[in-house]
Amino acid sequence: MGFNCGIVGLPNVGKSTLFNALTATAGAEAANFPFCTIEPNVGRVSVPDERLEKIARITKSAKIVPTHLEFVDIAGLVKGASKGEGLGNQFLANIRETDAIIHVLRCFEDENVTHVNGAIEPIRDAETVETELMLADMESLEKRIIPLEKRMRGNDKDAAQQMALIQKTLDLLREGIPARKLVVADDDQKTFKILQLLTSKPVLYACNVEEDSAATGNSLSDQVAEMAREQGAQSVVVSAKIEEEVSQLNDAEEKREFLEALGLHEAGLDRVIRAGYNLLKLITFFTSGPKETRAWTVYDGALGPQAAGVIHTDFERGYIKAETIAYQDFIELGGEQAVKDAGKMRQEGKTYRVKDGDIMLFRFNV
Question: pLDDT averaged over the chain?
C-alpha cells in the first residue's frame, strides 16, 4: 500500500532542499533559479516511531522494519499555472497523482536567494498556489458538464448525481473556497474521489525559516500558523538548510549533539513526516517476533481483514481472527506471555476496527 505527499510551492522556497534532506540523497537538484525541478523526484522515507525499538527489545527481534511514506518533489508553480504558465500543466498533472499536499512557504529573508514575486509574503504565496489549484479544478469540472447533460437527457441517474455534486463544488470554488471544505454525503464519496480535484487534497503548510528561528519560528511562520488554524489545517516550522546539514551526518549521536546545540529536540523532518502521516489519516499496527519487528500502515478505520491484507492478500481472503495486544499493555506487562497471563490478549474478528499501536498476529485459512 503506497501513500505519498507532494511537496509543492512557488520556485525558490526550498522545496528541493527539503526533499533532499528528507530522502538523504542529492537526487533532487536544488539551485537558485525557477523551474529547477522539472520532472518530479520521488523518495521513500521511513516514518520515525520510537515504539518499534521498545517492542523489538522485548521480543528480542533480530531486525526492525519501519513503515514508509513517499514524498514527491514537484516543479515550482507560478501565477497563471492553471493556464499553462511556467510548467503549469505538468505541475497540475503531477500533483493530481498525490494523496496529500505539503505546501512549502518561504518564511526567511535572504538577498542571495531570489523570490519570483519580490517581497517575502508567505500568506500571499499560499493564496497564489491555492488560487491556481482552484482555477484548475473549476476548468476540470466545467469540461464535464456538457457530456453529463447529454447523459441526463437519457435519464441517466448516475449522471444526475454527478452533476449535482459538480454544481455544489463549483459554487464553492467560485466563492474562493477549496473543494476539501465541501460536506460530501456518504453516497457521494466515491463519485467525489473520481473527480480527482486538486483542492480536495489535505494540506500541510511547511514554514521554511532561517537557521536561528528553527526552534521557535518567526513572525512570518506565526502568520502561517494563524492562517492554518483559521482553515482547520496544520503547519510545521522547519529549516531546510539545517535539515540538509543534519542529513549529511551519519552518526546518530552526532546528529543529536548538532540539533541540541541549535536548541532542537528532534529533526524538523521528523515532524514533517509525522504530520504528513497524520494528514493522510493513517495509523500504524505492528507485528513482532524473534526474526523482526515491523510497522505496517492502514487508514484510520481499517478493519482486521484489511490490515491482514496489507501483509498478504491471502491473509485477508482467509481471515479468521487476529490475536491483538494494545501497545501500552505489551510495554507495561513486558511481552506477549505476560499479556496472555493477565488476560489482556484479545481475539478480534472481521468487524474489529484496528487501533493505532495494536500488535497483531493474524489467523487465516486459505
Answer: 86
